[in-house]
Design a protein that fits this description.
Helix content: 25-40%
Number of helices: 4
Number of domains: 1
Distance between the termini: 38 Å
Mean pLDDT: 93
Structural class: alpha/beta
Order of helices and strands: EEEHEHEEEHH
Low-confidence stretches: none
Oligomer: single chain
Number of strands: 7
Largest sheet: 7 strands, mixed
CATH superfamily: archaeoglobus fulgidus dsm 4304 superfamily
CATH architecture: 2-Layer Sandwich
């Protein structure tokens, strides 16, 4: 069974981080199979050029025990320049052993190789990079991901879960 995951991490005021993953049975994320969240109590402080040190522990936690991982889509860059300086996606590729697509909402000065992808009716592109697969294939997958908006639905949902956590059951 192939498992496709879109993940995001949000940093909480307490100094902890909440990671969220949206799991699908297809790379377009048209059929969601589940959602997961994990909180990591202590995360490394932000260090320019070493974002992965902060992001990988929460990603590890949210993906722990997930079998069949075939593709990971992250909010950010896979590599940071045309020479392949590793970003979060490349580090995640090394960590999890699967192709990783980086989908960034803002341009990064040195990432001149990122492929600009327009989705929906947005005039603002997403910036797509990849580790473990060709960038053009990654850009094509991002174009085809479910959702009518600029940001694919799976990444929007992962962002919401990371920021707010899973919905609480109604009180009785």
């Amino acid at each position: 069974m192939f498992v496709f995951v879109a993940a995001d991490v949000h940093y909480l005021p307490s100094g902890s981080a909440r990671a969220a993953a949206v799991v699908a049975a297809d790379p377009a994320f048209s059929r969601l199979a589940g959602e997961r969240t994990a909180v990591v109590a202590d995360v490394a402080p932000y260090q320019p050029g070493q974002f992965y040190l902060r992001e990988l522990p929460p990603l590890r936690a949210v993906l722990d025990g997930l079998s069949g991982l075939s593709l990971l889509v992250v909010d950010g860059y896979a590599d940071l320049d045309p020479d392949g300086r590793p970003g979060l996606g490349a580090r995640a590729r090394d960590e999890f052993g699967v192709p990783v697509i980086g989908v960034a909402k803002t341009p990064f000065r040195t990432a001149t190789h990122a492929i600009a992808v327009l989705r929906g009716t947005s005039a603002r592109p997403l910036y797509v990079t990849a580790a473990g697969m060709p960038r053009a294939d990654a850009a094509s997958l991002v174009r085809q991901m479910a959702g009518r908006h600029r940001l694919p639905d799976a990444l929007r949902r992962a962002d919401t879960l990371a920021r707010h956590g899973p919905p609480r059951p109604p009180r009785r």
